Amino acid sequence: MQSNRLSFRQLLPLSLITALILSACGGSSDFTPQPVPVQVNVDFGTEPAGWVSGTSDFTTDTKPTDIVTEYRTLPAPLSGKGLYTYGTNRSDDLFIYIKKKYLGFAPNTQYALSFQATIVSNVATGCFGVGGSPGESVWFFGGASPTEPLTVQQGDQYTMNIDRGGQAGSGKYAQVLGTIGNTSNDCGKAPYMEKKLSNQTPLNVTTGADGSLWLLFGIDSGFESTSHIYYKNITLNAVPILNK
Fold it and tell me: Alpha-carbon distance 132 to 91, whole Å?
C-alpha cells in the first residue's frame, strides 16, 4: 500500500531547508536581500492622499497671508485636475512646498534619485517683474530626506530644518529642476501650458532606519509678487548605490 505520509523534508519550507543546510555547512542563516530600484508615481489628477503643504524663508513681518493649496480643475485648454499652489512673495525669497512620506525603500541605504515632474503654468519666459522675472526667477525644486522637512522658527526667521538649497542653488536634500516659465513669450497674457522638469544629475540620499523617504517639491520665488502653478504628475526613480 502506498503511504500518504509526507517525509520530514517535504514538510519543511524551502527557506528553512536552506537555513539548515547553511548551518550544517557552518554558514550563517541570516539572509539580507539586496536593495532593488524603486519607482514612485504620483498622479495629482486623482487627488492622492497624504500630501501636506507648507511655506518657509520669510520673517515675522513678511510672513505670507494668502497661501492656497488645493485640488482644482486644470484651466483651459487643459483637462483633468491638479494640485494648485499659490502665494505672494513678500520676503523676496518665499518657498511654497508640498511633502509626503513614502515607505518601501531598503533601510539605511543610499539611493540615487531622479525626479520628473509635470507642472502647468501660465507664466511666460523673458518677462520683467518686481525683483526679478515672474518665470525665470521662480525656481522649481525636487528633493527627498530621511527626516521630515519642516519649517522652523529661529528668532524672527522662518527656514527649513534641512539643507534644500535656495532660489537658483541646490542643496543636500533637494535640487533645482528648472523654472516655472513656459515656452510662451507673451508677457501680457500667456496661455496655460504643461512644462516637464527633471534633474540632470541624480540626488544621492540615504533612507531612514524604517526604509522611508520624505519627498519634497516646491517653488522658490525671487519674484516679489504672486506665483502659482498646478502639479500634474511626479515620478521618482530611486536606484540603490551598492558598495562593491
Answer: 13
